[in-house]
Amino acid sequence: MQTLDQIAKVIRSKNAGPFCLTLDVLFDKLADYQRVLAAQIITPEKMADLYQQPVANVQVFNHERALAMKVSLVRWTPAGSLTDTDIYGAQQHVLLYKLPVP
What we know:
By secondary structure, this protein is of the alpha+beta class.
């Protein structure tokens, strides 16, 4: 069984304003995108569980034409606050790497 980091071309995260974080998963082949989509690896429920968020704080967008999946999460703490450990949101995508893809 492969993991998401072996299939996706790009997996990244970034700050999307002071209260939101975005995770991007990009593919270079339609078959890979469709495989991950069909396996339901990236759903609001699974991302909420992985990132310890209420499902209401998670949105998932699938864009076949761009071969991309986007996850938007409400940040645990506002960007730049005293309790923020990753102001740019650049370290948060690592949790996606080892998701198994059947």
